[in-house]
Amino acid sequence: MSEPQQNLQDGADRPGAGVTAPPAIELRDINKSFGPVHANKNVNLSVRPGDIHGTIGENGAGKSTLMSILYGFYEADSGEILIGGKPTSIRSSRDAIAAGIGMVHQHFMLVDNMSVVENIMLGAESGAILASSVAAARAELERLEREYNLDVDPDALAGDLPVGQQQRVEILKALYRGADILILDEPTGVLTPQETDQLFRILDSLRQEGVTVILITHKLREIMAVTDHVSVMRQGEIIADRVTAETNKEELAELMVGRKVLLSLDKAAPRVGETVLRVENLSFVDRAGVARVDKVSFSVHAGEIVGIAGVSGNGQSELLELLSGIRPVTSGQFSMMGEDFSTEHPLDPATMRDVKAAHVPEDRLRTGLVKAFAADESAILGYHRSAAYNSAVFLDRGAIERDCGQKMSDFDVRPQNPALKTANFSGGNQQKIVLAREISRGPRLLLVGQPTRGVDIGAIEFIHRNIIAMRDSGSAVLLVSVELDEIMSLSDRILVMFEGRIVGEVAADQADERLLGLMMANAAPEQAGAAGS
Amino acid sequence: MAELLFNLLLAIDATFRVATPLVLCAMAGLFAERSGVIDIGLEGKMLAAAFAAASVAAVTGSAWLALGAGMLVSVALALLHGFACITHRGNQVVSGVAINILVSGLTVVLGIAWFARGGQTPSVTNEARFTPITWPGAELLAEVPIIGSLYSELLSGHNLLVYVAFLIVPLTWWVVYRTRFGLRLRAVGENPNAVDTAGISVSALRYSAMLCCGALCGIAGTYLSIAQNAAFVRDMTAGQGYIALAAMIFGKWRPVPAMLACLMFGFLDAVAIRLQGVEVPVIGPIPVQLIQALPYVLTVVLLAGFIGRAIAPKASGIPYVKER
Amino acid sequence: MSSAPGRIPRWVDVALIPLVNIALAFIVSGVILWTIDVDPFAAVEIILFGAFGYDEAIGYTLYYTTNFVFTGLAVAVAFHAGLFNIGGEGQAYIGGLGVGLGILLVDSSLPFILILPFSILAAAAFGAAWAAIPAYLQAYRGSHIVITTIMFNFIAAALMVYLMVNVLIQPGSMSPESREFAEQAHLPFMHEVFGWFGMQVTPSPLNLSVVWAAICCFLVWAFIWRTRWGYEIRTVGANETAAIYAGIDPRRIVMLAMCVSGALAGFVGINEIMGVHHRLLLNFTAGYGFTGIAVSLMGRNHPVGIVLASLLFGMLYQGGAELAFEEPKVTRELVVTIQGLVILFSGALAFMMKGPIERAYLRIAGGFQRPAGQEG
Q1: Which among B183, B224, B247 has a CA at the least distance from the CA of B57?
Q2: For testing the chain C interface, which of A385, A400, A414 should be mutated: the one with the most C CBs within 10 Å?
Q3: Which of A304, B160, C154, C265 has the most CB atoms around its CB within 10 Å?
Q4: Chain B partners of C150 at a C-beta cutoff of 8 Å?
């Protein structure tokens, strides 16, 4: 932590040095819409050369769209881009590369079955025959690796490398193309804390070499740790620009969300009942042999909300999929409502519903709904075999439509039209349809993943209140979220996952962001014992 | 024994002739699929080229003009496939099927309208064909046992397009694995996003692949109508485009194994006729249909993963959509 | 991408765009006719008269239509599960084999009333079985169903030749055909059915299968849109991840959809073998399986659309034969050409006209609204 702090001081010393130089990047009145969604609204952004400029905002605030425009991946509907003071037309990635811009995408743009060298020279080959290009690329790669301390085996297949190394290949790709402006889109989402620290050191050495860096993230800690300036995005707009040294996490958080962050919702003390879910030594090993869920044990009782915190990609998603029967268990077992499940007696999603458990999946559009279906058809997904919706042979269309209408009015879904195509509802309303479907049958156990991802603020509160109402009515709730605020405001107990293991448990009233953050990075001092009770 | 050897020699000789259009089409399919475009339409492009070449040969008497016409028509169809699948993101399988059906009808319609011979084109004279080339000394050496007959029967005495087909295999290998175009081609079939963000146009790359594909199918079709035969006959491709597709899959989208698969399928075809009615101990006569169906059966068995695994380029069949 | 889907009315998407696509296919067909010195308008006249001008023609048109309904429905059912079944031709062929074998087995011992359901079951079972193998390989072994169904068409063809030439051929006969079925195993022709009611109709190959085709249309509609199995098929086709989440096993759905699809294709055998030829023979499928692809695409995978598209192709087949007869420069393959063009424009190029038409609609609709807005 101390090293980035120093960088910050460097940054703070420098104001004035670049006053006369034009901004490395200037965006003027950028607009971009996807259908009805106005992803970027009159965005103005100015980045000083040699800075690490943070762009922070919640998921769906429009950060990635903006950077994709800057990199020529999308074309803006209107607006102007100036690079080094010169108006520049960026209509494709080729233009962006020519303008000296490089980008490390959130999902890496590597060809898995090609070597690192091949990946790096792709599109920047020196001639029509590969042999000479390979030699040149190899030499240049060695130079770059030395200069920036980026160590990668040039002959390894990209797909075989660990994530942190793949990211380095992406950075090397940009540098190989002569980028002096580097955009990183959510670069730490998939990294371990060690890899994150290494990345920050790399960014620091890039800054020292005069490279301008734009760091897109939704993590306040990262902004405070490495950036010189920060722009805050909310609902497609840039609503504030700050010198990092002159702001703080609290201010930025408030700007991001648009109001005081709800730290605690009004909720009564839990009335904890019998054990509803008991997980013992549960493991899931993926095809590559990595234990994504590693001997996890814990319990959830009736009447409580147990939150699982962790950096995205530490096994929470897989855990939820194991418990909902989507993924087969590798070893260990769990019991739901007293019924045992293991490799010998696997759970499938239909059985999960039969034992009165329900699952709100992390990704509603990919998993929880069928976009092409009418809302009422999406609203029976998973329960379509239920007697309530079927006669002997046929589906009871009338019952399905009435049921959906009822759910829509109970959950304030707008527009209240069961025949409308699912895809035509907003994210928040789609999520309400999923929630209504899963909650309204009064499950004894509710598995919830990222309940408010990409959902507008009004709907967030509604969804949170409904989850708490579930708990108050005696259901057990297991909540997975990467949003610490959400975990802290909803949970009665918090488990922290790191690299597939549960590394700690905290009671909600003893949790604070700092402690959880340390636990999520597996850097907390011995505090709480192992999980399970 | 000598007779058996000689028969084998003849079968292998026939194998080269039968395998030639397969090899050309398999390489064509390889270019398309390596770029991420599934091409069911090899059959149709080959058939259209066969018709165009035979028509032009019949009218002009020039084999070279005929070859040009065959390639031109085939390339035009390949570009149509590209227009549907790359530009308009249509379903690649549907587009391929459309081209196959369109061509199987149109060649007959035009053939009857132009030549009024029930869908056939007039036979062309040898001057307007690619005729066998006898290598120097082949006749002299023919009398020399083994080496002589190998030289005079196997190497010598094929037409130009046979040699071209088998030279195209190493050329394809070189292009795919040793050139910038090949690097980009392999990349775009696996991860078009990587290619796009590297500043290369995915569409331009896929269109280039379609050009290669069209040109090679054009040669294959020309071979059928004015090298192997002397006229176009309706539906003369008779499923060879599909066999080539099968061979390409069998070769796991790699040039040399695909060629070997073509040779194997060609050999099966060549011996099928010779084995008709031959009694095999215990089993009895081998049904010739079994041998004819063997390429298809073997491909299904391969695809089912019972002999190795055939993994297609990851992005094949998926139109490239940049915006969400 | 930039157009707002909510503002485009349904009829534009469901009726206007498909009609424009079909019109394009016919315009190109007209150009082809024109290049071979045939007046396209005169040709249309001959085709229409040839298809509907007299009752024998109508009989033929509906007889072809029957086949296309079966194969079109077959393609559509698979399509709803997200599967492209190119194997309709082979499944129809093997379905016909089932009908033939079944009838050869029982035609002398059972009455018609039992032979009919038995044959329908045999057609369905054989067609389904031939589709089940590629389905199994797709579901459980991950083989691409497009490729395997193509391969199975060829394997079916080889198998039929072998069986007809070596096994089922009538002893002493030169042509590879089975013996003729006994009288009670013939599906009545429609002119016979009309005759029972005292109506005189010119004989044509149209037989009772057409009624079965109509029933199948209704059954498929009810199955896909009104049963939980159809719901599961559509879920898997639209979003496999969501299907798994919902406790639907996509592998079983692939099997189910393909078996239903194969069974429907197999019913071509009822029309051809039991209804028309009354014996087992080679090449009775005559490309109907491939036409099913065009029919399904054109009919947007809905039974109503499929019936309309089948009628159109029935008309083209019958009228096209008439045209070939009247006009020596034209052959029946013209219909195959049109079929290819229909698949091209309504299938592969389906998106080509979508954007322009939607933009044009918005401009026209907006043009009507804007003045009102300015005034208001």
Answers
A1: B224
A2: A385
A3: C265
A4: 40, 242, 245
